Amino acid sequence: MTKTVSLKEAWSGEANCLNCSLRTSVLFAGLQQADFEHIHEPIDQFSLKPGANLYHAGDRGDYMFTVRTGVLKLVQYLPDGSQRIVRIARATDVLGLEAMLEDNYHHEAVALHATEVCRFPARLVRELSQANPGLHRELMARWQRALNEADAWLTELSTGSARQRVARLLLRLVRDRETSECQLFSREDMGAMLGVTTETTSRTIAEFKRQGLLVETAPNLFLLDIPNLRRIAED
Amino acid sequence: MTKTVSLKEAWSGEANCLNCSLRTSVLFAGLQQADFEHIHEPIDQFSLKPGANLYHAGDRGDYMFTVRTGVLKLVQYLPDGSQRIVRIARATDVLGLEAMLEDNYHHEAVALHATEVCRFPARLVRELSQANPGLHRELMARWQRALNEADAWLTELSTGSARQRVARLLLRLVRDRETSECQLFSREDMGAMLGVTTETTSRTIAEFKRQGLLVETAPNLFLLDIPNLRRIAED
DNA sequence: CGTTTGGTTGAGTGCGGTCAAGCCCTGTGG
DNA sequence: CCACAGGGCTTGACCGCACTCAACCAAACG
Lengths: 235, 235
Hints:
2 copies of one chain form a homodimer. Chain A is α+β, with helices and mostly antiparallel strands and 235 residues long. Chain A has 2 domains: 7-133, Jelly Rolls (Sandwich); 162-234, Winged helix-like DNA-binding domain superfamily/Winged helix DNA-binding domain (Arc Repressor Mutant, subunit A, Orthogonal Bundle), CATH 1.10.10. Chain A contains 8 helices and 12 strands. Chain A has helices at residues 7-10, 33-37, 122-131, 133-157, 162-174, 187-194, 198-210, 226-234; strands spanning 11-14, 44-48, 53-55, 63-69, 72-77, 83-89, 94-95, 108-111, 115-121, 181-183, 214-218, 221-224. In chain A, the strands form 3 sheets. Chain A has a 5-stranded antiparallel sheet with strand order 1-2-9-4-7. In chain A, helix 5 crosses helix 8 (226-234). The radius of gyration of chain A is 19 Å and the shape is elongated. The two termini of chain A are 36 Å apart. The model of chain A is unreliable at 1-5 (pLDDT under 50). Chain A binds chain B through residues 76, 78-80, 82, 84, 86-87, 97-98, 100-101, 103, 106-107, 129-130, 133, 136-137, 139-141, 143-144, 146-148, 150-151, 153-156, 158-160, 195, 233-235, and chain B through 76, 78-80, 82, 84, 86-87, 97-98, 100-101, 103, 106-107, 129-130, 133, 136-137, 139-141, 143-144, 146-148, 150-151, 153-156, 158-160, 195, 233-235. Chain A binds a DNA duplex (30 and 30 nucleotides) through helix 7. Chains A, B: One of its GO terms (molecular function) is DNA-binding transcription factor activity. Chains A, B: It holds the Pfam family HTH_Crp_2. Chains A, B: Keywords: DNA-binding, Transcription, Transcription regulation. Chains A, B: This is Crp/Fnr family transcriptional regulator. Chains A, B: Residues 27-103 form the Cyclic nucleotide-binding domain.
């Protein structure tokens, strides 16, 4: 099921944080030029194909990651072997915060679309954050953001009918986007996000398409009828 | 529905952190005697009756809280008005972490049992954490703990059949406890934790009682058959 | 080409939601 | 003291949504 692609194969260069295009919205946003000069270890960039694994649950958390483009899912397994997606990460999101606490990773991190990430040593962040109130604060903000997401998944994506959940997921995918167009995930993954089966997800998406709430403008690219989806989401 | 009890009525004294009985497991565990001397603002203790509200979603987050005894629920409302409990807080847990970021509270915090909390100004923690790597680290650990809880609620308490969810909730309530005895919540609250209706929760609990998985030793105090509940929880 | 993988659709069933009634306990007021 | 009301828990009857199992189709791929 999981294509195993070692990160080595996915290496795509060394990052230049100082001139990073995401500089203003990224974890290191608050750092000064002088701080960057204290970064001796290299910060590498990786490209992940859909299905590629960034890290496994239980792996030693030596690194943290910033998503540059694309989407990854964070997956946890249940005692009975079934899986549940507990969060997704997109551009500017940080992955592996638990590495700050010298903890192992808590999830499987798997790319859903073509994805680029920057990797940096957790030790580096630990050191910088001691002296750097801005980074310290930014870290807390990241944790809080993850917590907000987790709460929202519980209240919005794990509550109500399947129709409502699918609608809420769709709306969530285009929030804070300029366009209402979005690339969907596999029905299986969407099901694992919503706590419903693949078939139910497929049926619901198909129904939305028939009702014109969802228009496929290109293969696997959909335009959303936001107002009507919102009606369904709130019921 | 919500009994409104102002915190003023619930005031039960001024805390003595240095000699706190929870000192070793609490947010301020890492502080030195010298640090405490820099705390000028008073740290107050409060007693909450079941149903009493500690803070409301949207209130200014000027304070953070440590739970001394008892249990509180953190509640979020859905667009349609129904409520979902996203977490519970028990002894040594910290409430209102979002106040660190000068954010408003994100939940309703309501006591489920008789509860005692300590209240301290968020500003105090912000200041202390600048200079105090231990506290800094402890804060991150608290955030991570909350996140772990959130993930577990999603995978354990919002997935699977109602029987499984109820069993998992019960097991969760006695984890890391010396005894397998525990005080349950109202069926309505348990339902709001599990994403099922009050009736389904009631039926399931009643069935567990008939099957001897749950023995009522005193009014609303239950002894759990952990091994068999675990069997149900895992399938 | 056949094979595989993901999406869709169908038929049947059962779990859990809904609506409603009844029970027990507590508190309240006549 | 009893009558009554109210809230929380339980139980019943009914129904419908979503799960299960299965077939089928289209696109991708060797």
